[in-house]
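Bug: token stream looks shifted between consecutive jobs. Job 1:
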Amino acid sequence: MTGDRLKKILASVAKGDLPVEEAFKRLSRLPYENLGDACVDHHRGIRQGVPEVIFGEGKTARQIAEIARSMLREGTGVLITRLSDEKIRAIRRSFRGAVVHQKARCVVLPKGKRESAGKGLVLVVTAGTSDIPVAEEAAVTAEFLGSSVERLYDVGVAGIHRLLCREELLRKARVIVVAAGMEGALASVIGGLTDKPVIAVPTSVGYGASFGGVAALLGMLNSCAPTVAVVNIDNGFGAGVMASVIDRL
């Protein structure tokens, strides 16, 4: 259920075009629909401004399909994250028009034309090529939520000149997402170059002493750039949501 759809139902009742009982039937699945294995939160998009998203990891393809069909019936597009290749193939068989974002390990099931909800540009930046899957999850999420997104990849501190020559793009952005592994220094560098909010995403990229992203996480949490905020390790989705929310303000 979207805010626009709810308003249309209420307006139809007010005009007398829609019987009260029919409106009640349409709204009866609010605030959620119990599917047995899942309770789908149809009200979330109205309550939080961000619809429920399906986290694909740990769910079977059947469970994902059931939840997705429930959401599509209520008029919302669907974003499914953290999908294996096998689950992507299953979803493509089940849903005509599924848009696959292979690098992001995501699938989008569109519902109508995507409307722009942002006021500016979300810039997604990576330190290295290995950080791209997490960055793409952030980019796809922000795009799904209506933000305009640009990407700037492989501009980490080992070759900082690659970033400095794109400073104009940094200043153009309304909010910046930075995905970096190893020591995670890129978020601080960008935080020191721009007055825009920086959402830092530590990735689990690096050798043994990176401890699966913990080193980057701690480095970002200890950033001396006061405009840097940090999400969890590999949480591109969370960064994309937060970037999109900031972009609407």
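Job 2, same session, no restart:
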Amino acid sequence: MAIRKYSRQRELIKEFLMTRKDHPTADMVYMNVRRMNPNISLGTVYRNLTRLAEDGEINRLNVGDGTDHFDADMTPHYHFVCTGCGCVLDLEMDSIESITDKAAAHFRGYIAGHKTYFYGFCASCSTPGISDGFSK
């Protein structure tokens, strides 16, 4: 990884992401960081998000909605995507890392890892009776 020149704008973006658990889009990042730095442009936000993701400082999540979401939590964890409102949330659960070994047992190449997203309806979008996660 090449050493990057310090950028206050990049630092603001990363600091903002570290305060969030909702995995904002680039537009959401722009709207919020702009409050701290009114001169920042949308292009600058996009470039810095790309750079931070390329440098492994944040995760770029592609959850199937056509928009990238960003996550500053670099620890191994899983995500839930609401098919109702589109929110992306951290899913608190034990690791299923063993799935990589199980997949490798049925594959002749090398499996380096996996990305797993869970889909459904969040508590706000759930229909009555299943909002607790259990069907009647």
